[in-house]
Amino acid sequence: RAESRVWTLMLLLGTCLLYCARVTVPICALALSSHFDWDKKQFGVVLSSFFWGYCLTQIIGGHISDQIGGEKVLLLSASAWGLLTVLTPLLTHITSAHLVFMTSSRFLMGLLQGVYFPSLASLLSQRVRESERAFTYSTVGTGSQFGTLLIGGAGSLLLDWYGWESVFYFSGLLTLLWVYCTCKYLLSEKELTIPMNYLTRGLSIPKQTKVPWKQLFRKAPIWAVIIAQLSTASTFFTLLSWLPTFFKETFPDSKGWVFNVVPWLVAIPTSLFSGFLSDHLISQENVLWCLIFPFFQVIGSGVSSIFALCLGQTNSFCKAIMFASASVGLQTFNHSGISVNVQDLAPSCAGLLFGKDSAGFLLGGHGVICVYLAGYLIETTGSWISVFNLVAAVNSIGLCTFLLFGEAQRVDTDSVYMDL
């Protein structure tokens, strides 16, 4: 149990640093746009390029993690994205095609980070008891808020004091330090070694254990969780990418460390509370499982969208902070809704299913369309209301689909699944 707690803490830190690296560009949005003379359509391309890469490694990341262990995949990808973050400011000085370079850099960042959550789903489904998964996942998931909080506070100050380059250095060096400490103190040399034949086994799916996707995707709950996951992820990343720019343009006299910190500070306790509440409800014999996941999804997708709509209508900075905090905070209830539902539907291949679930090619991209479309709408309409209407509409699609077709019962109980 002591080792489990240490790993939970380290995975929380890993998720934190994942988001530190991911949010560096949104935090530096206006500085980068001004420095390179980009309009919002161009910057929308830069922001959305991350998700083109992010969706491509979901499936392979989840499958390899199911085969060789999620911790190895996590550390390899973290080493690469940490190094890329550190090198990004340096490489911008040796190229004149800044838009192409930054777009390519964010695409590569997406490729590297795309394996993280499928690997995490695989790791938790194999090593955490079912009654503790929601709270553990929510605890680790709070790293996304901690990371956004950290880079929002420290990054805003570094941006004002030393320029946008310092934000990239700060995030990348912390990630490399985390990888070093994890390898040195938590893993043995044997655990860090991946035999070539083992890696080959991870890259290929043997015929006798090949996942029968045709049969699996005939299940309506699988499609319900796919659509819900894509909808919630797309809207979350839209808010994550554009909120700093919204506050800076709408309230130019406001401080970055306020609007980049407060919403994510609120999201941390709400995420932990949702995980605790979910595990508590599941442990009660008189509570119907079929009602638990829809309950959390209504809050995470439905109620949060109401506050997003209110955000677009207010002219008060204090009210805008309150609405943004409520919207972002309540979205964390999705950790105890569809994110846990994936592990309950098919625990025998949770990592691969999570990757398949999040693969952007199914519905046009994991955040690609929404993030780019948000920039297009702002540039063409000149109004932020259209962006928050988009968030609410996409969330509604995912929520309605999940409420109509979602289930909590396992669907991989046939012998062909159990062999995985």
In words, what does this structure look like?
The structure is a single chain. This protein has 420 residues and is mainly alpha-helical. The chain has 2 domains: 1-195, Up-down Bundle (Growth Hormone, Chain: A); 210-412, Up-down Bundle (Growth Hormone, Chain: A), CATH 1.20.1250. The chain has helices spanning 2-22, 24-27, 29-36, 40-56, 58-68, 70-92, 98-113, 116-127, 133-162, 164-185, 189-192, 196-203, 213-216, 220-250, 256-259, 262-283, 289-311, 317-331, 338-345, 350-358, 368-381, 385-405, 415-418. Helix 4 (40-56) packs antiparallel against helix 21 (368-381), helix 16 (262-283) packs antiparallel against helix 17 and helix 17 (289-311) runs antiparallel to helix 18. The longest helix has 31 residues, at 220-250. It is globular. The two termini are 27 Å apart. The model is unreliable at 205-209, 355-365 and 415-420 (pLDDT under 50).
Quick structural overview:
The chain has 23 helices and no strands. It is mainly alpha-helical and 420 residues long. It starts with a helix and ends with a helix.
Overall pLDDT metric: 79
Number of helices: 23
Shape: globular
Q: Mind telling me which CATH architecture of the largest domain this is?
A: Up-down Bundle
Beta content comes to under 5%
Q: Roughly how much helix do the residues carry, as a percent range?
A: over 70%
**Helix/strand/pairing class, anyone?**
mainly alpha
At the fold tier of CATH, the topology name of the largest domain is Growth Hormone, Chain: A
In the CATH scheme, the class of the largest domain would be Mainly Alpha
Low-confidence stretches: 205-209, 355-365, 415-420
H-E order = HHHHHHHHHHHHHHHHHHHHHHH
- How is the biggest beta sheet arranged? none
End-to-end C-alpha gap: 27 Å
Write the CATH homologous superfamily of the largest domain: MFS general substrate transporter like domains
**How many DSSP-defined strands?**
0
Work out the count of structural domains: 2
